[in-house]
Amino acid sequence: MDFLPTEDQEALRAGVREICTDTFPREKLGELAESGAGFDPALWATLKELGVFGLRLPESEDGLGLGLGDAVLVFEELGRALVPGPLVATFLAAGLPGFDVGSPVGVIDLSGDEPGRTPLVEHADVITKLIVLDRDSARLVDPADLRGTPIKIPVDPLTPLLAVPSLPEGTPLDIDTAQWRREGAVLTAALETGSAAATCDLAVQYAKEREQFGRPIGSFQAVKHMCSDMTVRAQIASVAVHAAAVTLDYPEIGDPARAVASAKMLADDAAVVNARTSIQVHGGMGFTWEVVVHYYLKRAWVHHTQFGDAGAHADALAAIL
C-alpha cells in the first residue's frame, strides 16, 4: 500500500490550509480569547459549506465519499490553524439519524473518569447535541438540559468548559463506542500533529529573524538542535497518525487498536513538547500574551485529555504487546 499522499489529497490539504489562512488568521486567536467566545461562526459555516464534516458520507448523501486517511489530512490543517470548536465530535456524528451534518456536536467520554470527578462539557453554549460515551454504551443528551457552572478560567481560553455535576440520563444511542473512541483518538491526534508542525514553523521563523550578538539566533547550535528535534518529533507523529487512519480504513493490514494507541501517544508528546520548545526558542517574548504560541500549548493540554491520554494509551499498548 502506498502511504504517500495522492495529488487529490495534496490538493485537499492545500485547499483547507488556504481557507484557514484566509478566513482564520492567527490574529483572530487573541480576538476570540478576549471576547470569551471560543468559537468562530463564520469559519464554521465555511467549513460546513465546503463539506468538511461530511467528507466520509457517500456522494449520494452529498458527501465526498472519502476515508479517515483523507480526513486526517484535513484535521492536521485545522490543528495547524488552531481552529476552535467541537470539530471531532461533529465530524464523527455526520450521518447519524436525526443529526444535521455540520451542526456543532459535543462528546464527553466517561469511560476513563475517576469516581467523584465532575464531568466537563466543552463548548456547551454552541453545541446542538451532546453524545455521552459510557464504557460500553452511548446516550444522546439535549444541551438545553445541562445544569452546571462555567469554568471561569479554562485551561484553553478557546475551549470553554461547563462543569456538570449530574448529567441528564438522555436517550440511548446506537453507535459502536469502541470505534468512536478509536476514530476520535486519531482525529484528535491529527489536530495535535498539525499543531506540532505549526509551533515548529513559528520557532524556525523567529530563529531566523531574532538577532543576538549580531547574528540570527537560528545560527546557534543549541537553537538548531531544538528546531531539528521539533521537526523530527512532528513528522514521526504525523506518519503514525496517517498509518493509524489507514489501518482503521483497512483493518486487514494491521491491528487498529495498536496503531491508534501508538499514534495518540506520539501526537500527545509532539504537540505539548513542540509548543514548550517553541516558547523556549522565543525566549522572553514567548511568555507574552501577544505571541500566539501559548494558545497552541494550552490547546495541546486539552487534546492530551481527549479520547484517552498518553498514559491510558500506553497501558492499552502494553496490554496488546
How is the secondary structure organized here?
Layout: H1 7-23, H2 27-35, H3 41-49, H4 68-80, H5 87-93, E1 105-109, E2 120-122, E3 129-133, E4 138-141, E5 149-150, E6 161-163, E7 171-172, H6 177-209, E8 211-212, E9 215-216, H7 221-249, H8 256-282, H9 293-305, H10 310-320
Parallel strand pairs: 1-3
Antiparallel strand pairs: 2-6, 3-4, 4-7, 5-6, 8-9
Helix pairs in contact: 1-4, 4-6, 4-7, 6-7, 6-8, 6-9, 7-8, 8-9, 8-10
Describe this structure in words.
This protein is α+β, with helices and mostly antiparallel strands. The chain has a domain at 177-320: Up-down Bundle (Butyryl-CoA Dehydrogenase, subunit A, domain 3). 52% of the residues lie in helices and 9% in strands. It contains ten helices and nine strands. The strands form three sheets. It has a four-stranded mixed sheet, with helices on one face. The chain starts with 6 loop residues before the first helix and ends with a helix. The mean pLDDT is 93.
